[in-house]
Amino acid sequence: MTTTFAPLPTTASASASVASTTTESIVFAPTPQQAYLMRIGDTCLIHAQRLAEWSGHAPILEEDIALTNLALDLVGQARALLTHVGQQTGFDEDQLAFLRNERDFVNFTLVELPGRRAGRDFADAVVRNFLLAVWMNVMWARLEASSDAEIAAIAGKAVKESRYHVAHAADWVVRLGDGTDESAKRMRQAVDRLWPYTAELFETDGVDTAAAESGLGPMRVALQPAWNAVVEPVLAEAGLKAAATGAFRSTGSRGVHSEHMGYLLAEMQTLQRSFPGGQW
Amino acid sequence: MNAVHDPALSVRVQDAWRVLHDVLDPEVPAISVTDLGIVRDVIAHDDGLEVVVTPTYSGCPATEVISQSISDAIDAAGLGPARVTQRRAPAWTTDWITPEGKEKLRAYGIAPPGSCASEATGANVSPIRLMARNVDCPRCGSAQTERLSAFGSTACKSLYRCVACREPFEYFKPI
């Protein structure tokens, strides 16, 4: 995202003009097709934000670099999607990323769950990274056939990047799941914690059907067989099992988020809201 | 705005290509933007040149710097004004790096990417323990190398070590 420190306005003019216009949240009312793209874009963006929290904190230096490199790819993919939707709705990527309120974000709840902080384990980061990377890879592969040429072009690039994400994440799932007793235990706990949130990745609502009918992209439920085909053998190789799915359904993709989302947005948006219209 | 077919302008396009051969990638300053294969077209319009660039990675932080370097270089050569536009499709692949570019990478100490067709980058490949095939050390040429990290100083490279000469080196990943 572009962010520059514009000179700070004097306090008098700030209170008069800037604060009243540019720091306020935007009113964003997407069509179902736009909401469909925002779900993917927001999922990339929020996932990147959580991955970036590992910068300087990952267990080993190489993984520190890897996780932030993955985050960089995801931010790039989010930028492309937000820019594209922004062109249709009169906003730029920064406004969409930094000036929307929590209820206007439509990422999966899975990606906003606490990462490094709040007592979560590196195993949580590894498992989430894997489950999500496979979903993104399967989705990008389908979006290469999108009726929207720009989306097909974005997907053509992103699908290749996501292959590296899947390979890297799968490698860690096997390494830790099939590692020591302690690492295996932590991986089992992480899978059990995160699995209930995967149901949302394959739900169907009006946004999915609208996107499928217009040829923009597939319904989420259509991705499940391809997702399973990658996830199941990797879990098996790692000695892990998918947890049972219950009645719980997370609702981030409908704008109703977990208690963690507000804190994440406060941190992610503070610069743009403090330095309105800032450019990097 | 229409492309113009004027002999003087086509000379200008050829001159622009020559200038672009010397515009270096800011993150791998051993090779130029044309070695890298990201310049897809140079078009003469009646109000200036258009340089069409395909980005390498979605999140490549060098994209903006590259665009600026290109228009600055064309301006400096007196061929401006130039504007840089982006073309996403078809997506850039390391297969577009020229043979000369690959040789420059090797001389700089970065093992060049193998061809995508020969690598296991297909969608149907199992991701488990997916590693690049043996990568030759760019310093001593030994095939006895090992991967240290899937990602290196930039997203486009991974980190290797040569078992023969013990030197670490980067490998430009095929994508």
Describe this structure in words.
The complex is a heterodimer of chains A (280) and B (175). Chain A has 280 residues and is an all-alpha fold. Chain A has a single domain (28-274), classed as Ferritin, core subunit, four-helix bundle (Ferritin, Up-down Bundle), CATH 1.20.1260. Helix content of chain A is 61%, strand content 0%. Chain A is built from eleven helices and no strands. In chain A, helix 2 (32-52) packs antiparallel against helix 3, helix 6 (122-143) runs antiparallel to helix 7 (149-177) and helix 6 (122-143) packs across helix 8 (181-194). Mean pLDDT of chain A is 90; it is low at 1-21. The longest helix of chain B has 14 residues, at 7-20. Chain B has 175 residues and is α/β, with parallel strands linked by helices. Chain B has helices at residues 7-20, 33-36, 63-76, 99-108; strands spanning 39-45, 48-53, 82-86, 110-111, 145-149, 157-162, 168-172. In chain B, the strands form two sheets. A four-stranded mixed β-sheet of chain B has the order 4-7-6-5. Chain B contains four helices and seven strands, in the order H-H-E-E-H-E-H-E-E-E-E. Chain B starts with 6 loop residues before the first helix and ends with a strand. Chain B has two domains: 7-86, 2-Layer Sandwich (GMP Synthetase, Chain A, domain 3); 108-172, no CATH class. The A-B interface holds A 62-63, 65-66, 69-70, 72-77, 79-80, 137, 141, 149-150, 152-154, 156-161, 163-164, 166-171, 174, 230, 233-234, 237 and B 55, 57-61, 88-93, 121, 123, 126-130, 148-155, 159, 173, 175.
Structural class of chain B: alpha/beta
Q: The CATH topology of chain A, please?
A: Ferritin
Low-confidence stretches of chain A: 1-21
User: H/E order of the elements of chain B?
Assistant: HHEEHEHEEEE
Largest interface, C-beta closer than 8 angstroms, per-chain residues? A-B, 40 and 30 residues
Largest sheet of chain B, in brief, is: 4 strands, mixed
Number of domains of chain A: 1
Please list the strands of the largest sheet of chain B in the order they lie side by side: 4-7-6-5
**How are helices and strands ordered from N to C of chain A?**
HHHHHHHHHHH
**Helix vs. strand class of chain A:** mainly alpha
Residues in helices of chain B, as a percent range: 10-25%
